[in-house]
Structure formats: C-alpha cells, structure tokens
C-alpha cells in the first residue's frame, strides 16, 4: 500500500485532492448556505457543451468548458431574475442546452475521442501538473476573495434583502460568486467528472453542518472532510480497482452516514 506514494501519478492525485478540497470547501459552503445546489447541477451539465465545442474546434476542452460554464452561470443568474421566468425553468434551459450542444459537437468532431468518459466520470489518477496549477490558482483566488469580503458574502448567503439595506452591491457579488462556482466545477471535471462533481461541492458541507452552523467553521470542516473523502476514495479505488471519482463520492457518503448516525446516537445517549 505504501509503495503507492512513490508513484508520480499518486502524488499528483494527492496534491489535486488537497486543492480541490480547498476550492470546493470554500465555494461549496456558499452553494449549500444559499441553496444553489440545483443551479450548480445545471451549470455542471451545461459545461458539457463547452467540452463538445472544444473537441470540435481543437482547442482545450477545459478552456472552452470554463468559458461556456461561466456564460451559462451568468445566463441562469440573469434569466432567473426575469419576472416571467421561474428559476428552475431557467436552469432546465441551460442544463439541456449544454448537454445537447456537447453531444452534437462531440459527434461532429473530426477527432472524436473516447476520452469523453474521462470528462463524464473523471479520473483523478490522470490529472497533470497543469490541472494542479489551475486548482492552486483557483484556490488562492477564492481564499483571497472570501478573506476580503467574507461578511458581505455571509449577508448575501443568508439574507439578500438585509445585504441590500447595508448598501452591498448584491447583484455584482452574485455574478462574481456564480463565476467562481462555474470555474470550480470545471477545475474538478478531470478529477470527479460531470456526473459526480456536484457531490464534492455539497457532501462535505452537509457533513460539517452536522457539527456547526457557523459559516467560517463549515468552510474549515468542509475542507478537512473533503480531503478525507478524497484520500479514502483513492485507497478504495486502488483496492477495488474501480474509477476513482465514483470511489471518492462513495467514501464521502459513508463519512456523512457515519457522522450522522454517530451524532444521533450521541444525542440519544445524552437525553437518556
């Protein structure tokens, strides 16, 4: 088992897991608190449109996915604020449009590749130093932004009207945070894949929320729990010879169930 640490691909996986946990721990706390899980799911699936366009045009699929995801995030944010459009309908429009565009351009691509499964289901063991560099850059941006504007972000996450009364530019912050959500999703695509990436943005926060309701503490706990989930998933993937993305999410769910049951038993014992 210890010989795994001698392999470069596993060292890359450990580094990628760490910075993915930091990025997802920070922005995921905003997603869960603001109840944007469904929107984030829509952006995740819309990003497939960017991957398809990237494969068709020959540019980096991750770059085109990033651009497409950010534009989709802005589109959902703008369309959901229109009086004649419900939020869930706006999400459905971009969700299905992105998937349709992705499938069409993938099949029209002259260099159609079976690597599509890597984007759909992820494979953390294939991430490169360039992918890790992207995750490091995104993590540093998120740390800087949340450190400078933590209080306005908390106000917006819990009560937008109160935030407006404090003269906080709510719409501007919402668009910036939607951009960060889209970029975090794309940065984690190689690691977890389109199908499962939303879990990395919600499961650690759900687990952390069992122990605290403090926004700051949820961020810190989510980062730690997310990294534990990644490490456990990597070991499980190695032992069972199954895809690492699915193993990470499966292990994260086990952590959540274990913590939930443990907390329930503890509270039950205290009441008796």
Model description:
With 272 residues, the protein is mainly alpha-helical. It has a single domain, classed as Orthogonal Bundle (ABC transporter involved in vitamin B12 uptake, BtuC). Helices cover 79% and strands 0% of the residues. The chain is built from 14 helices and no strands. α1 runs antiparallel to α13, α2 crosses α3 and α2 crosses α9.
Summarize the SSE layout with pairings.
Elements: H1 8-33, H2 37-57, H3 61-79, H4 87-108, H5 116-121, H6 129-148, H7 150-158, H8 160-165, H9 170-187, H10 189-192, H11 197-200, H12 203-208, H13 215-240, H14 244-271
Helix pairs in contact: 1-6, 1-9, 1-13, 2-3, 2-4, 2-9, 3-4, 3-9, 6-9, 13-14
Descriptors for this entry?
single chain; 272 residues; mainly alpha; ABC transporter involved in vitamin B12 uptake, BtuC; 14 helices; globular
Structure summary:
The protein is an all-alpha fold and 272 residues long. The chain has a single domain (2-195), classed as ABC transporter involved in vitamin B12 uptake, BtuC, CATH 1.10.3470.
Class from secondary-structure proportions:
mainly alpha
Radius of gyration: 19 Å
Distance between the termini: 43 Å
Major beta-sheet overview: none
Strand content: under 5%
Q: Indicate the low-confidence ranges by residue numbers.
A: none
Query: What is the annotated CATH architecture?
Result: Orthogonal Bundle
- CATH class group: Mainly Alpha
CATH homology superfamily: ABC transporter involved in vitamin B12 uptake, BtuC
Put simply, the count of helices is: 14
Helix percent reads over 70%
Arithmetic mean pLDDT: 86
Q: How many domains is the backbone divided into?
A: 1
Helix and strand element order: HHHHHHHHHHHHHH
C-alpha geometry = globular
Using DSSP, what is the number of strands? Answer: 0
The CATH topology label is: ABC transporter involved in vitamin B12 uptake, BtuC
């Amino acid at each position: 088992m210890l010989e795994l640490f001698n392999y470069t691909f596993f060292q890359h996986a450990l580094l990628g897991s760490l910075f993915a946990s930091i990025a997802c721990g920070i922005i995921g706390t905003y997603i869960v608190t603001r109840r944007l899980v469904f929107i984030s799911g829509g952006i995740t699936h819309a990003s497939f449109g960017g991957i398809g366009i990237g494969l068709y045009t020959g540019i980096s699929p991750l770059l085109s996915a990033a651009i497409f995801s950010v534009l989709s995030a802005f589109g959902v944010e703008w369309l959901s604020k229109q009086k004649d459009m419900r939020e869930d309908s706006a999400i459905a429009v971009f969700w299905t449009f992105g998937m349709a565009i992705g499938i069409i351009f993938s099949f029209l691509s002259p260099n159609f590749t079976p690597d599509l499964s890597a984007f759909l289901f992820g494979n953390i063991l294939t991430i490169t130093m360039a992918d890790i560099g992207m995750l490091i850059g995104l993590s540093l941006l998120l740390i800087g932004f949340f450190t400078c504007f933590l209080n306005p972000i908390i106000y917006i996450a819990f009560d937008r009207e109160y935030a407006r009364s404090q003269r906080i530019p709510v719409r501007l912050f919402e668009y910036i945070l939607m951009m960060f959500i889209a970029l975090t999703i794309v940065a984690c695509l190689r690691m977890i894949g389109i199908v499962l990436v939303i879990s990395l943005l919600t499961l650690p926060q759900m687990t952390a929320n069992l122990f605290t309701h403090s926004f700051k503490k949820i961020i810190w706990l989510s980062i730690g729990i997310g990294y534990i989930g990644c490490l456990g998933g990597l070991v499980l993937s190695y032992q069972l010879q199954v895809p690492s993305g699915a193993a990470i999410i499966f292990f994260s769910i086990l952590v959540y169930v274990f913590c939930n049951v443990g907390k329930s038993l503890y509270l039950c014992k205290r009441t008796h």
